[in-house]
């Protein structure tokens, strides 16, 4: 097989893998997480998720050379948490806080969410959270900031996914 033909076959195979990977979605890459300040000053996450899938846990990673884990929790306490709406960095919405947050959240960090789909847990999407975007932002009821600076509703966040 020629080098060109091999490259085309490989590119096609990678395209199939990219389309079929994940929680049966074809989302923007990556789909935006939403975040906002909660009523008590905490950080609320609106994670994009397909119907039937559930959030089983979340982690916060520092933007450093080692991607240091700052917080880790598992086991949603409520249906709302399982559907991707939860407080970040606290044990309020998860049954088991495997690593408590020590100190305050940094201005920028990564969040990884774990999903359960068809009875199997897998690492979901990662999202970048930039808290400086919230400074001076006027979010309405039910609105969330995204890492790109777009303001979205919970419905808009989930609508990024093409769920099957």
Structure description:
The protein has 164 residues and is α+β, with helices and mostly antiparallel strands. 17% of the residues lie in helices and 38% in strands. The chain has helices at 3-20, 79-82, 154-159, and strands at residues 34-37, 43-46, 54-62, 69-76, 85-88, 94-99, 108-117, 120-130, 143-145, 151-153. The strands form 3 sheets. Strands 6-4-3-7-8 form a 5-stranded antiparallel β-sheet. Strands 1-2-5 form a 3-stranded antiparallel β-sheet. Strands 9-10 form a two-stranded antiparallel sheet. It starts with a helix and ends in a 5-residue tail after the last helix. Residues 1-28 have low confidence and may be disordered.
List the helices and strands and how they pair.
Blueprint: H1 3-20, E1 34-37, E2 43-46, E3 54-62, E4 69-76, H2 79-82, E5 85-88, E6 94-99, E7 108-117, E8 120-130, E9 143-145, E10 151-153, H3 154-159
Antiparallel strand pairs: 1-2, 2-5, 3-4, 3-7, 4-6, 7-8, 9-10
Summarize the structure.
The chain is an alpha+beta fold.
Structural class: alpha+beta
Poorly predicted runs are 1-28
N-to-C SSE string, H for helix and E for strand: HEEEEHEEEEEEH
Shape: globular
Which characteristics define this entry?
164 residues; 17% helix; alpha+beta; 5-stranded antiparallel β-sheet
């Amino acid at each position: 097989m020629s080098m060109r033909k091999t490259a085309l076959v490989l590119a096609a195979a990678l395209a199939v893998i990219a389309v079929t990977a994940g929680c049966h979605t074809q989302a923007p890459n990556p789909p935006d997480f939403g975040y906002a300040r909660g009523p008590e000053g905490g950080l609320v996450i609106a994670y994009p998720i397909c119907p039937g899938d559930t959030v089983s846990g979340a982690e916060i990673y520092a933007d450093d050379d080692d991607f240091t884990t700052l917080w880790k929790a598992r086991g949603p306490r409520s249906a709302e948490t399982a559907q991707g709406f939860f407080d970040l960095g606290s044990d309020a919405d998860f049954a088991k806080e495997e690593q408590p947050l020590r100190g305050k959240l940094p201005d920028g960090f990564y969040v990884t969410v774990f999903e359960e789909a068809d009875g199997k847990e897998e690492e979901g999407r990662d999202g970048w959270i930039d808290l400086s975007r919230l400074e001076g932002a006027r979010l309405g009821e039910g609105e969330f900031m995204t890492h790109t600076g777009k303001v979205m509703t919970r419905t808009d966040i989930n609508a990024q996914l093409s769920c099957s």
